[in-house]
Amino acid sequence: MDTESYGYLGRLEVVSKGRVLVYDSILYLVNSVDLSDNNLSGEMPVGITSLIKLGTLNLSMNHLTGNIPADIGNLGWIESLDLSMNKLSGSIPQSMVSLTFLNHLNLSYNNLSGKIPTGNQFKTFVDPSIYEGNAGLCGCPLPTGCQDNEGAPQVPSGDGGEDDDSKLEKLQFIISMVIGFCAGFWGVFGTLAMKRSWRHAYFHFLDKVKDAILDFVSAIGTYLQKRS
Questions:
Q1: What angle do CA 101, 62, 48 make, to 5 degrees?
Q2: Does the keyword Glycoprotein apply (predicted)?
């Protein structure tokens, strides 16, 4: 279908094969719109997502700007969508995953960015030329991978290194504590277990300390009794 004129405010005029077709009250029943290679400019009209019976939409080779309408997923019957060679920006709407009848897609040569949606029909769009000319796009089937958790604030790469260093320092500290405890424990009790004379001297020393403490406590008690 070759289209020479276009207007969309609840009314669509299409010149096809020498006839002027006017869609007004039955606009939502339009099943094919080809407005390619014209001088259309401005943003894509959001109302175009109301054409629920649309099977083909070709707006390629124009000067359209702005984002692809977020509700484009409403075009549940669409089989062919060509928005190539415009100046569209922003991300590819996630709602497009619901276009399960879509078998032809062309979004090349725009200013789109972000991760290419996955699931449903997008699994079959493995030709990179569908998305070429959009430097900001990433993900399959493009060779440019996306960062994990895209859209969330990116943590500088240096922070990851600092976390690793902190974990390493904690591990070294724990290991040092274990080694120190083992060395101290066996340095004292291991020696006592091996040297009988030292063991007797050690327990004799403990007895003296115990007796000294008991004598001190007893003296304090006697003193307090006399004061009372």
A1: 45
A2: yes
Alpha-carbon gap, residue 226 to 228, rounded angstroms = 5
* Bridging pattern class, strands 19-23 and 12-16: antiparallel
pLDDT band at 40 (very low <50, low <70, confident <90, very high): confident
User: What CA dihedral angle connects 80, 70, 137 and 152, to 10 degrees?
Assistant: -150
Enumerate the β-bridge partners of residue 203: none
Q: What would be the CATH architecture of the domain defined by 12-138?
A: Alpha-Beta Horseshoe (3.80)
In 70-200, DSSP assigns E strands to 80-82, 89-90, 104-106, 111-115, 136-138
b/e sequence 60-85, b meaning 16+ C-beta within 10 Å: bbbebeebbbeebbbbeebbbbbbbb
Q: pLDDT digit string (tens) for 176-213?
A: 777 777 666 666 666 666 666 666 676 677 777 777 88
Give the predicted TM-score (pTM) of the model: 0.54
- Inter-residue contact 101 to 76 (CB < 8 Å): yes
Domain spans, the chain: 12-138, 158-227
For residue 177, what pLDDT is reported? 79
Beta bridge partners of 14: 21
